[in-house]
Amino acid sequence: MKYIIFDSGPLINFSMNGSLHLLRKLKKVFNGKFLITEKVKTETMDYPERIRRFELGALQLGFLFKQGVIELPKFNQKQKEQLRKESEEIMTIANSTFIAKGKNLHLIHEGEATTLALAHILKEPSVIAIDEKTIRMMCENPENLRKLLQKKLRTPISANKKNYDFFKKFKVIRSTELVYIANKKKLFDLKDPRALKAMLYAMKYKGCSVSKEEIEQMARL
């Protein structure tokens, strides 16, 4: 069994772009499951369902959940406790990796931590769908993240580099890569040669951390 474990960002992004049907289609061609954690469900469905501004998106995601397109892991109480403990450990490690002016930089929140923890617990191959730049760079190139934060904050930043290896085991994917795959598999309803690039930019402007150069490259492939 293979898994794509979704953080809140990509689900919200697809919802805001009116493209949840693409997730439904991707699930049909994916030989595995789309998983979320309880925390992500709360962030994307349970809580926003009570806010008029976000209610429609929450209801649409909730319908996807009821259909089984996205689902919670079937964990027993012991596994749920393991997920909680590993989430706390991941938050501790991530939030003590970079230091500025003698203080740890807070980089990761509970929803992201539970998503990483779930990937860590599952024995089968898993990929994390996450649009947030900080966590993605933490997994792919933490030293570049340190340099970026140092430039952004305009202050020297040191690192507990022994923490770097902990995050290298996580494999991540963004909304834009999922859109690219959907296009390659001819899952778009809109049959227009401009549709892919338009969708990639739509994902960028709704919160996916992707450069214009990356978009132009994907649109040419």
Account of the 3D structure:
This protein is an alpha/beta fold and 221 residues long. It has a single domain, classed as 3-Layer(aba) Sandwich (Rossmann fold), CATH 3.40.50. It is 57% helix and 11% strand. The chain is built from twelve helices and eight strands. The chain has a five-stranded parallel sheet. A three-stranded antiparallel sheet has the order 5-4-7, covered by helices on one side. Strand 4 (98-100) and strand 5 (103-104) form a beta hairpin. Helix 1 crosses helix 4 and helix 2 (20-29) crosses helix 10. It is globular, with a radius of gyration of 18 Å. The mean pLDDT is 95.
Helices and strands, with pairings:
Elements: E1 2-6, H1 8-16, H2 20-29, E2 32-35, H3 38-46, H4 55-66, E3 70-71, H5 77-94, E4 98-100, E5 103-104, H6 110-121, E6 126-129, H7 133-140, H8 142-153, E7 157-159, H9 164-168, E8 172-173, H10 175-184, H11 195-205, H12 212-220
Parallel strand pairs: 1-2, 1-6, 2-3, 6-8
Antiparallel strand pairs: 4-5, 4-7
Helix pairs in contact: 1-4, 2-10, 3-6, 5-6, 7-8, 10-11, 11-12
